[in-house]
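tokens incoming
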């Protein structure tokens, strides 16, 4: 009987055809036979390496989704994860747990850690078994119990939580050994000057004598803004309405109580002179402002049409006044409110001037503009009764200044 069983067992082994398998194959029990799949699982017995998805693993365990290129795995790697696209190590845990990477040595199996907490949604970095950096769910950084290393060059260091009163919270140390310390609302340096350095426009220096030194090259220094506009706005104020003594002069009459002002009927005009100041920024446009109001109680709206006619000449015997005056009209919208201060603005110069504009490219300090301003038409509307004539209180020119501390903008909000 024993001989018969041995004969049957040997016959079954012959049927397995073990000589048909590839060396290094990991065999699987199939539905009816033993099988191999070297494309997905392979043991390299010569080098003691396991490949998942690869028949020639680079290191002890090589998980392969596609070739990353001609690069080989780092020789000291124990596990290699390779893909021809993005690839990740995915740690899945319940909501109340942590996951991460642990780094150990002969003294501690958790000397270093990179841990994500699903409870607080924070990432912690631990060194020497202690949390040294935490990033919370809002992206805030916490560096607890940091220690100072005064010997470390080119370093940024945070003081420890048990710092003494007066200690700095932050040290920035340079290669020379000098450092800047920040703490208790004080910035301190060990020696020399505190310099805010730029590559092209000069440095701002706070020296040991307590003096602030600013670069003085053209375009530098204290300015309201550096983009829009480059310089602040100020006013050119010309002499007002005393020149006109003819038939077209405005009427000085009662405005409000004992206060009088000049009232303009249609065709009334004034003659105003403007002197370009030395702080005018060359090449910038200027703007004409007419300040006006009315005293009507039945006004519903409408407009006033102003006509501006101007001539200009540079100073210092450089040029004659323009032979053909620049002339044009612009409108201001009336308010229904009695005594409402209305400001009507028009661009008064341009590099390619049209209409009432003078030439921006000719404007310079000590130049003079002569202006005739006329009320060309009164189209104020009323609910009943007569149409009131406007009062013109002031006519000024806005320009950009290099020297005055002007407003950032030429209209409210002036400082935004």
């Amino acid at each position: 009987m024993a001989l018969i069983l041995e004969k049957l067992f040997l016959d079954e082994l012959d049927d397995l055809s073990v000589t048909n398998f590839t060396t290094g194959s990991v065999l699987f029990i199939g539905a009816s036979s033993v099988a191999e799949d070297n494309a997905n699982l392979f043991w390299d017995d010569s080098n003691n390496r396991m490949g998942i998805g690869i028949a020639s693993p680079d290191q002890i365990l090589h998980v392969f989704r596609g070739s990353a290129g001609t690069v080989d795995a780092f020789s000291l790697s124990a596990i290699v994860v390779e893909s021809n696209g993005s690839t990740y190590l995915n740690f899945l845990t319940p909501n109340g747990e942590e996951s991460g990477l642990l780094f150990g040595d002969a003294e501690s199996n958790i000397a270093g850690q990179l841990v994500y907490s699903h409870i607080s949604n924070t990432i912690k970095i631990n060194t020497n078994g202690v949390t040294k950096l935490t990033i919370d769910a809002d992206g805030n950084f916490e560096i607890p119990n940091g220690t100072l290393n005064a010997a470390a060059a080119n370093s940024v260091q945070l003081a420890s939580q048990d710092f003494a009163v007066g200690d700095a919270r932050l040290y920035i140390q340079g290669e020379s050994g000098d450092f800047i310390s920040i703490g208790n609302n004080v910035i301190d340096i060990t020696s020399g000057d505190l310099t805010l350095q730029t590559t092209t426009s000069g440095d701002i220096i706070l020296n040991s004598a307590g003096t602030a030194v600013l670069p003085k090259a053209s375009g530098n220094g204290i300015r309201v803004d550096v983009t829009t506009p480059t310089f602040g706005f100020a006013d050119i104020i010309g002499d007002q309405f005393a020149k006109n003594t003819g038939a077209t002069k405005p009427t000085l009459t009662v405005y409000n109580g004992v206060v009088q002002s000049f009232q303009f009927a249609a065709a009334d005009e004034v003659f105003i002179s403007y002197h370009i100041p030395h702080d005018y920024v060359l090449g910038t446009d200027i703007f004409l402002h007419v300040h006006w109001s009315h005293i009507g109680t039945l006004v519903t709206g409408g407009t006033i049409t102003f006509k501006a006619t101007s001539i200009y000449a540079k100073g210092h015997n450089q040029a004659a006044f323009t032979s053909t005056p620049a002339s044009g009209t612009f409108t201001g919208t009336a308010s229904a409110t009695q005594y409402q201060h209305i400001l009507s603005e028009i661009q008064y110069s341009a590099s390619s001037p049209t209409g009432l504009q003078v030439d921006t490219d000719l404007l310079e300090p000590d130049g003079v503009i002569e202006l005739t301003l006329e009320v060309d038409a009164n189209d104020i509307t009323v609910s009943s009764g007569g149409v009131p004539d406007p009062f013109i209180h002031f006519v000024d020119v806005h320009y950009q200044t290099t020297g005055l501390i002007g407003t950032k903008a030429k209209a409210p909000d002036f400082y935004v």
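note: The helical segments are 2-16.
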